[in-house]
Each structure stands twice: as C-alpha cells, then as structure tokens.
Write a structure and sequence with these properties.
This protein is of the alpha/beta class. The chain contains 9 helices and 9 strands. A 6-stranded mixed β-sheet has the order 1-2-3-4-5-6, with helices on both faces. A 3-stranded antiparallel β-sheet has the order 7-8-9, with no helix packed on it.
Length: 280
Amino acid sequence: MNMKDAFRFQNKLKNLMCEATSILQDRRNIVKVKTTHLRSKVMSEALDAVVEETAPSEYAGHANEVAAFIMLLMEERENLSKALEYGEKLDRAREDEEADKPDYDAKLEALLPVVRGELPVHIHAHRADDIATGIRIAKEFGLKCVIVHGTEGHLLEREGVPVVTGPILGDRSKPELANLTIESPAVLTLQGVKTAICTDHPEVPIQYLPLCAALAVKGGMNPEAALAAITINAAEIAGIDHRVGSLAPGKDADIVVTSGHPINLLSRVLTVIINGRRLS
C-alpha cells in the first residue's frame, strides 16, 4: 500500500469512527449484527439513558470514597432538577413570545427526554437499598426506569419496575453479590415483576445467555417464563417488541430453529433466519 492509499484508508476509518461515535455516544442502542451499514444496524427507538452507580459498600472503610458516592448522587439529583427547570422555561418561551428562552445547554437538552418520561433510565444496582434509592429518585422526578442486575431485587416489595437480572452465571466476587442466587428470576416473576435475563456481556459472554436462562429454571423458574425472559420480555423492556421478541405478523422475521427446547443445553441450532433471510 502506497502512502496515498494509506492516507485515504486512514480518512475512511476516521469517518467511520466519527459516524459510530455520533450514533452510539451517551446512550445505548439495540444493534442487529447482520446488516450492511452501521446506521441501519441501530434501532434508534430503543435508546435509553444509563445511570451507573457503585454502591458504597464496595468502599467499606474508605470514608473519602463513600463521601464521593454521596456527592455523585447529589449531583445526579441536581442535574435532574436543572433539567426540569430548563424544560419548564423552554415550554413557557414556546407558549409566550415575551418569555425569556434559556441559553442552550447540551447536557440539559440530553436530559429533557428523561425528565419528560420519554426515555427510560437504566439504574445499575445490586443491593436492595441501592435499588430502593434508585426507585425513590425515579418516583421523585417522575422517571421511567429499569433496574439492571437487581441481585437483591427479589427481597423488595413489588414496585412495578421492570428488572433485567444477571449475570447469574458467576460467583460472589464482591460484597454487593452476597445474596446472589439463581432463584432470583423465579421469585421476581412470581411477584409479577416484568423480568428479563442478561449476561452483562462481556462480563459473561453473550453466547451463554441460554445457559443463564437454564440456571433460572434450575432455580425454580418455569421454562417458558425463562424463554420469555430472554425474548419477548427483554424486547418489551427495551421498547422494541413491535419488531422483535416473538413471532407475529408485521415483526422482523428473526427465527432460530433448534432440535429441542432453546434453553436445553443439548439442543442444536438447525436453522437461523434474520429479517426473513435464511442464513443456515
């Protein structure tokens, strides 16, 4: 490759990375792997905001870190309050030409769909007290939220908040996982909680998702409920059930045919169809 071609290739790579950044920054997206162009892979309707919170128990005995965690929570609440006020000023300016329009703020603009309930917030928490804190803040600001991990979610009373539980294929590697149990998905389902199962890829590789569902069955979950937890429930929580998650007219024709029950580890994949096109 000569220098001219090398620079041309470098520029193409730079443009591709810029496109990827513009699509995927700040929010998480649902991506289909078997398509041609990056932009067509993204299901933009499934965007969600993410709140990563590390529980203070991870810093037991370190007062500075606990204080930093508390400050982070206060900062999140302050940002939400500012976004609410920012949105109210924008609405007044839209209705009244004489009202002052606030100066453009990119951060607050990004939070507007969250505080307006248009964009769900993913609260990553393991312990029951941290889950309860997240739900309390969501209720205070009228946010739509989803609990991710929810290791001790089965210990709480039903709150009507969906839970994406997992990974359950692992050990109690940190204090927040002290009550990790494969029975959690079954208990949540019996409590009437909309439950999905995740692997937290790459923490546990995504190819072990059926195995995680099988472990949930071992923990008392109905096999069909476990299958729903990695298909239609996950799609509904992600907001893309109008396209994927089940077999119905008008949905994407994404189908996997197996020799037995899909979460049976002895089952083999016989046929794969994506968007109505047979791949194997």
